Amino acid sequence: MSERSFMKNKSVTDVNFNDERQDHDADLENNDFDVDDESEDDLNQEEDFDEESSEMLFVLESIYESVADMLTEDVHPFMVQSSLLTNWMQTVTMNCDKDEDFFLQQIEKIPELLPILIQQIQTIEGELPESVDEPMDAEAKSHFIEMKKMINDLSARDLSDSDSEQQTQIVEKRTVELFEAFDKANAHPLDVEAAFLYYWVHFVAMEHDFSEEKFEKLTYYWSDVFEKMAIFIRSNMGIEDAF
User: Fold this and answer.
1) CA separation for the pair 150, 164 (Å, rounded)
2) Are the beta carbons of 104 and 187 closer than 8 angstroms?
3) Taking the complete model, does pTM exceed 0.70, yes or no?
4) Helix%, strand%, coil% for the chain, nearest 5
5) pLDDT tens digits for 30-41?
6) DSSP 153-189
7) How many angstroms separate the Cα of 41 from the Cα of each of 49, 120, 121, 186, 195?
8) Closest CA to 225 of 194, 188, 190
9) Which end of the chain is less enclosed by CB atoms within 10 A, N or C?
10) CB–CB of 137/205 below 8 Å?
11) How many CB atoms sit inside 10 A of residue 40's CB?
């Protein structure tokens, strides 16, 4: 297997959030979308992508720790969710060998795209089997309930301009740290794409009051969810390349 590099250069997803959260204003001047030839070649090697590999677990754990740290620092859940969504769309753009201008065009569409994506998650959940072979245990259910309450409590807080600026800096710092870690570990591009989506779906489920059963289905059948969302987002971004 050739050496993989998720990002040739460090990237910053610098998103400015104001108190009118629905506007999804973005300032993304610092992004660098240079993708080396090796990355493009590796994306075509499906056998390299293993959702249960140690590399995938590293990516998932890294994002989980980053999200947990931001919430502990009282970063508004909207800002965390938006950074996950933006980073997911960024990785999709790079994985499809699109440039920065293309990505910026997609970011401008987020306000109209967001409800469509959420609706698609709900549609996919409704199409999944009604039961899972391994239900969440009591500890996992308790954790889900606690996280939902924490996110709801933080979401109820208003953001001042100074809070928004300070929290944007925290989000930017965490984003840089994540991409540096992925680059250093030669993380597989599809691992990173899947992981950002995975935790964005977590926030959607909690903020839109999905039941434990619905959340359980989305995580248990994650392989199907990821594939359908990967195809869906590429179609909505006007990318003809089949996933």
Assistant:
1) 19
2) no
3) yes
4) 65, 0, 35
5) 334 333 433 333
6) HHHTS---HHHHHHHHHHHHHHHHHHHHHHHHTT--H
7) 13, 30, 30, 14, 21
8) 194
9) N
10) no
11) 14
